[in-house]
Amino acid sequence: MTSAPRAALVAAIDYHTAGEPFRIVTGGVPGLPGATVAERRVSAASRLDHVRRLLVQEPRGHGGMYGCFITPPDDEGAEFGAVFFHQSGYSTACGHGTIALGTWAADVGIVAPDTGAFSIDVPSGRVGVRLHRDDDGRVSAVSFRNVPAWVHRRGIRLQTSLGETTADISFGGAFYASVPAVSLGLSVGPDDLPRLVATGRDIAGQLNASGAARHEADERLNGIYGVIFHEDLPVPDGYDAGTYVAQRNVTIFGDGQVDRSPCGSGTSARVALLAGDGLRPDQVLLHDSVIGTRFEARIARAVSEAGRAAVVTEVTGSAAMTGLHQFVLEARDVLGTGFSLRAL
Q1: Residues 6+ apart with CB under 8 A from 183
Q2: Which of 78, 94, 184, 315 is catalytic?
Q3: pLDDT above 70 as % of the chain
Q4: Residue-range domains of the chain with CATH
């Protein structure tokens, strides 16, 4: 537990994207200094971390809580910026959050009712958003085109408490290590979640200790953000097996947090690996989560990123509003900004 300025009052709107929460701070915090969203992310850690803790820690949050501070964009090419935060700190990318932000921007009128597409600046770069609307004009789904995704390293051998496995590292706005769940005798489901969390933390720790994920252009993007355990699925009935590829995954991120959604930026990282394995631009990845929710993803185009082959991915999912909040920190609250309890 840590102290913070008293009598805080923070406004937020909550969404979930495919089951993963996202808390958008809409008032009660000062602006963040910095010329870019990437710089404002650094500022947030020193200037607004008490607010992050207030919103993600118990009793106002929980171990899986995610959210963002809204900021100005880097320039006039985007509508706004977002600094993402979670239980363990600040992320450089957040795909499920981008889907929630696209829905929120339409819901509250930040973008005009006839807007079909716009951009959001995030710490890893500029992300394009396309809105899908129902006949009544409400947003039913959001597609985002991420920063270029690429394969960093393949076939890294690791020893874990469950045996030896190999990890492939790819970038989708952050670095992710992909591991076949079956290689450790696991399946992607709630029953194996405790072992997935423990092993994911172990793998991330080993890779980060070895410096396996370093970004050549921006050291703020260094390090494994998440470990993705994945498994193949049969293509569901009603989908053409020649057009669709089906997988299920769970991403263990931060310090052992579990992504309830299929993980948007992690999906981009997975598509980069699958592109190297032969995924075609005319194919769609049906990417299911540990709770059975789904994103759809595809290769929008091939590009070159710092001299390497990369892909711009398009990921589609849906978000729904879950709450409107005014969070209070009373002067007499002995818990201050709260606490965190871990089962593992």
Answers
A1: 163, 165, 166
A2: 94
A3: 97
A4: 8-145+321-329 (3.10.310.10), 150-315 (3.10.310.10)
